[in-house]
Write a structure and sequence with these properties.
The structure is a single chain. By secondary structure, this protein is an alpha/beta fold. It contains twelve helices and eight strands. Strands 1-2-3-4-5-6-7-8 form an eight-stranded parallel β-barrel, surrounded by five helices. The protein is globular and about 50 Å long. The structure holds indole-3-glycerol phosphate. It catalyses: 1-(2-carboxyphenylamino)-1-deoxy-D-ribulose 5-phosphate + H(+) = (1S,2R)-1-C-(indol-3-yl)glycerol 3-phosphate + CO2 + H2O.
Length: 259
């Protein structure tokens, strides 16, 4: 079994357990159900930098990136740096994140927040809304077209935007539908961890213009962004490059200043 399959098996068990402990009615009682969300796609369309900065403590490909920051200092730093939005990893087992991280981020910043999670069930979208997210991620590699449709429609019904992540042409072709706002090409193969900007470059032309194009992972230089922009990319998701420093906010500030 590859790592992605393992994560999904664990995630499905986790969702079953959580559903039995926290009922939907409790999630729906959250103050965030009465609040409007902020649009990341609008921010990206109107930005010259397009940076979506990620809060990421560790990953399956890197045992430890950084455990010494608080969520507040990282997210405040990203907001002050001029990021268009922030991605918050909420998976615990593989990424060391939590829904509390999302809640703390929401209490700290006023820019769009992505719940970065392996979403397999509508329940997780309710959790995202209940903890202050503005958008969710759907990963084409682990969902059928029917699932992408149901989950994205559900997200939209709650006012959340949808970023759909693909890694190859087949995933892209099966996924295109009007309930998506942004399409992200992951430069990292989640099954093998191979990273190359070529994945973004190769798929760009096949992404219809109605979706904001986002390039995700393995971006660590201004040159990389300048290479990707001519392919139509408006958003750039960066985690490790900021989180591995001793001041993520400062690293993001210095990066964005050059764009
Ligand atoms: O740290 P990086 O290489 O800058 O990557 C950030 C982000 O793209 C990556 O964390 C990511 C992209 N898609 C995902 C899906 C699940 C978990 C994590 C991810």
């Amino acid at each position: 079994m590859n790592i992605l399959d393992k994560i999904i098996v664990d995630k499905k068990r986790e969702v079953i357990l959580k559903k039995s402990i926290i009922p939907v009615s409790q999630l729906e009682a959250s103050v965030f159900f009465g609040k409007k969300t902020i649009s990341l796609s609008d921010n990206l369309r109107n930005s010259t930098s397009g940076i979506i900065a990620e809060h990421k403590r560790r990953s399956p490909s890197k045992a430890e990136i950084n455990y010494s920051f608080t969520v507040e200092e990282v997210t405040k730093g990203y907001e002050n740096a001029g990021a268009c939005g922030i991605s918050v990893l909420t998976d615990g087992k593989y990424f060391g994140g939590s829904l509390d991280d999302l809640l703390l981020a929401r209490a700290t910043v006023n820019i769009p927040l992505l719940r970065k999670e392996f979403i397999v069930d509508e329940y997780q979208i309710l959790e995202a809304k209940a903890h202050g997210a503005d958008l969710i991620l759907l990963i084409a590699a682990v969902l059928t077209r029917e699932e992408i449709k149901t989950l994205s429609e559900f997200a939209k019904s709650l006012g959340l935007e949808v970023l759909l992540e693909v890694h190859n042409q087949e995933e892209l072709e099966k996924s295109i539908m009007p309930t998506l706002d942004m399409i992200g090409v992951n430069n990292r193969n989640l099954k093998t961890f191979e990273v190359s900007l070529d994945f973004s470059k190769q798929l760009a032309a096949q992404i219809p213009d109605d979706f904001v194009k986002v390039s995700e992972s393995g971006i660590s230089s201004i040159e990389a962004i300048n290479e990707l922009k001519p392919f139509g990319y408006k958003g750039f998701l960066i985690g490790e490059n900021f989180m591995k420093t001793n001041n993520a906010g400062k690293a993001a500030t210095e990066f964005i200043k050059q764009l």
